[in-house]
Design a protein that fits this description.
This protein is mostly beta strands. Helix content is 0%, strand content 63%. Bound molecules: copper (II) ion (CU). Copper (II) ion binds next to strand 5. InterPro entries: Cupredoxin (IPR008972).
Length: 65
Amino acid sequence: MSKGERFVLDITSDRDDKVHVHGFDKEVDVAAGKRAKLELVADRTGRYEVESHDPALLIVVLQIR
Ligand SMILES: [Cu+2]
């Protein structure tokens, strides 16, 4: 995506966890079977990993140009 764009992470999980957006220092709690949304503005360029911590899984990499 391009710098300045607004985007939404729309997450469903099969377990209670936290999802962490690296570089933005944002975290969202997710509950098993429920939907969690996190809206952010891509206010910087680079590659940023979105991951869960328990278990540690890489979910997606944001590429902002
Ligand atoms: Cu993390």
